[in-house]
Amino acid sequence: MASNHIIEATGLYKTFGSVTPARDITVNIDAQSVVGLIGTNGAGKTTFVNMLTGYIKPDRGEIVFRGKRITGLAPRKITGLGIARSFQIPQLFGSQTARENIEIALAISGLSADLANDSLARLGVLEFADMVSGTLPEGVRKLLDIALAMVCKPEVLFPDGITERNAPPFGADVGLQNPVRLIMRLQQAAGADMRQHIEPRQMVVEVDQRQHRGDKQRHGRDDKQPRHDKMPALGPP
């Protein structure tokens, strides 16, 4: 029987000095699924996502996407293959408007700038299109960061830190304080053909009549590990 795994991570191991946030991690992610990665601060959730998306190279182990080994590839190459992510700290062009951020991402992806408003509308932030992104509320900035990741129409999406308890409200009809509604909005925005991986922080996302799975990760050894979750992006997808 053919495997339905779109991503296979086997034996991933990563140390930062005396800290080991990833120890022998083996995870399979199925196509057309929503997966919750749960763990306390310092458990290694963002380190795991960083390894899958190329921002950190594992010391050991293998990562396979659709049968192709991608371990150690650069983030841009992995994005080009169909894996995208947002960040705990949104990686935006702070002096540009929300619309201009999307237009830059569209240009990089070879798509028309005319699609910018649609991209913002799908995430419920079109009303902020003409505001400079550096002045936006943090919740809107996070959604804009997700919109940037979705421009390239990835097969797998890692929205990092979308359910942080300190995420502020921002008045849009979908917000980070209602992660279930946000996940439903992401599914609707992505369409039926997109595979999504949701990386919530410190809470279990439960939605009836949906295929959801929470993989609890307990590989961290020190809550005071270096904050590699603040690693900057190399620009929009």
Protein described:
24% of the residues lie in helices and 20% in strands. It is α/β, with parallel strands linked by helices. It has a domain at 32-56 and 74-210: P-loop containing nucleotide triphosphate hydrolases (Rossmann fold). The strands form three sheets. It has a four-stranded antiparallel β-sheet with strand order 2-1-4-5, covered by helices on one side. It has a two-stranded parallel sheet with strand order 3-8. β1 and β2 (19-30) form a beta hairpin. α3 (98-108) packs across α4 and α3 (98-108) runs parallel beside α5. The termini are far apart.
List the helices and strands and how they pair.
Blueprint: E1 5-16, E2 19-30, E3 34-38, H1 45-52, E4 60-65, E5 68-69, H2 75-81, E6 83-85, H3 98-108, H4 116-122, H5 138-150, E7 156-158, H6 179-190, E8 212-216
Parallel strand pairs: 3-8, 6-7
Antiparallel strand pairs: 1-2, 1-4, 4-5
Helix pairs in contact: 3-4, 3-5
Gross morphology = globular
Oligomer: single chain
What topology, given as strand order, has the largest sheet?
Answer: 2-1-4-5
Largest sheet features: 4 strands, antiparallel
User: Which segments are poorly predicted (pLDDT under 50) over 5 or more consecutive residues?
Assistant: 165-175, 192-196, 198-237
Termini gap: 34 Å
Examine the coordinates and then state which fold CATH places here, giving the name of the CATH topology of the domain at 32-56 and 74-210: Rossmann fold
Overall mean confidence score, pLDDT: 76
Number of helices: 6
Relative helix content: 10-25%
- What's the β-strand tally? 8
* CATH class descriptor name of the domain at 32-56 and 74-210: Alpha Beta
CATH architecture of the domain at 32-56 and 74-210: 3-Layer(aba) Sandwich
Query: Any idea what the radius of gyration is?
Result: 17 Å
CATH superfamily of the domain at 32-56 and 74-210: P-loop containing nucleotide triphosphate hydrolases
Topology order in helix (H) and strand (E) letters: EEEHEEHEHHHEHE
Structural class: alpha/beta
- Estimated share of beta-strand residues: 15-25%
